[in-house]
């Protein structure tokens, strides 16, 4: 576990894309089971627009969200894109139905995902394309072959991975440079501690998915006390802890509520004391 870090609120993704570390994850702007259209599409567009107006310049989506409908929603809400806005997407999952996620790393499927994302997002270049999952039935070099081709063609700027070990990161790098890793990580689930520290040392971004979990019941009292001390919500403290955990962490909390969006954005204003950070890190 790293010690508390100075809270810098931007990060140079890939070394040159300056990202505000409090971004937005668009997965919740879909139907039940991350399948189908958002229940209120016009509200979903307003949430995306409000996020950008509030200073978000990093939005995370995926071909699998909807599937495909989430990318189209983002383009409908935000195109033409504000200068400096980075939209990251992912590929490599088949979606037979709600809550069903089947890894598919076949090169033809990956190639199709990339081309489809370019069209749906109305862009010539995807700033960050991430392999949503490594398919256990397909060598990662084969899955990433079309990705490397797309990088060479200027269709993808940077490449990331999701839910991977250090060994898998290093294996993937034999085919294409990796600038980010998106793994499950929050106050309550820290199985990827070693990957957080590894990516920080390597100059890669670490993007926790499900960042708003506030930890196990054993932390409930501590986090509530800290939230009261800062006149903040438990969710804000959970995000503030992540921002202080490591300077390479980029946050993508998602919500379909304008009020919750505003609440999440205020987490960047909270700085935990050394003692508070340590209490939550145990």
Automatic annotation (TrEMBL):
Residues 21-280 form the NADP-dependent oxidoreductase domain. GO terms for molecular function: oxidoreductase activity. The keyword Glycoprotein does not apply. InterPro entries: AKR (IPR020471), Aldo-Keto_reductase (IPR050791), NAD(P)_OxRdtase_dom_sf (IPR036812), NADP_OxRdtase_dom (IPR023210). Keywords: Oxidoreductase. It comes from the Bacteria. It holds the Pfam family Aldo_ket_red. Gene3D superfamilies: NADP-dependent oxidoreductase domain (3.20.20.100). GO terms for cellular component: cytoplasm. Coiled coil: none annotated. SUPFAM superfamilies: NAD(P)-linked oxidoreductase (SSF51430). This is Aryl-alcohol dehydrogenase-like predicted oxidoreductase. It comes from Chitinophaga japonensis (Flexibacter japonensis). The lineage of its organism: Bacteria, Pseudomonadati, Bacteroidota, Chitinophagia, Chitinophagales.
């Amino acid at each position: 576990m790293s010690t508390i870090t100075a809270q810098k609120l931007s990060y140079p993704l890939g070394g040159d894309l300056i990202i505000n570390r409090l971004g937005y994850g668009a997965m919740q702007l879909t139907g039940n089971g991350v399948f189908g259209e958002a229940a209120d599409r016009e509200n979903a567009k307003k949430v995306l627009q409000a996020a950008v107006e509030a200073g978000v310049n990093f939005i995370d989506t995926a071909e699998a969200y909807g599937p495909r409908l989430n990318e189209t929603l983002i383009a409908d809400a935000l195109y033409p894109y504000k200068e400096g806005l980075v939209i990251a997407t992912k590929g490599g999952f088949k979606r037979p139905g709600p809550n069903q996620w089947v890894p598919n790393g076949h090169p033809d499927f990956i190639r199709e995902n990339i081309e489809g994302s370019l069209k749906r997002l109305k862009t010539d270049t995807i700033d960050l394309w991430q392999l949503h999952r490594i398919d256990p039935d397909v060598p990662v070099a084969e899955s990433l072959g079309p990705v490397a081709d797309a990088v060479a063609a200027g269709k993808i700027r940077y490449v990331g991975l999701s839910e991977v070990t250090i060994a898998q990161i290093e294996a993937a790098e034999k085919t294409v440079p990796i600038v980010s890793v998106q793994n499950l990580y929050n106050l309550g689930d820290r199985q990827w501690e070693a990957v957080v520290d590894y990516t920080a040392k390597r100059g890669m971004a670490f993007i926790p998915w499900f960042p708003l979990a506030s930890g196990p019941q054993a932390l409930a009292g501590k986090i509530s006390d800290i939230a009261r001390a800062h006149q903040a919500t438990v969710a804000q403290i959970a995000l503030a802890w992540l921002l202080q955990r490591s300077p390479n962490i980029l946050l993508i909390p998602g919500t379909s509520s304008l009020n919750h969006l505003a609440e999440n954005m205020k987490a960047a204003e909270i700085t935990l004391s050394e003692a508070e950070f340590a209490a939550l890190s145990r």
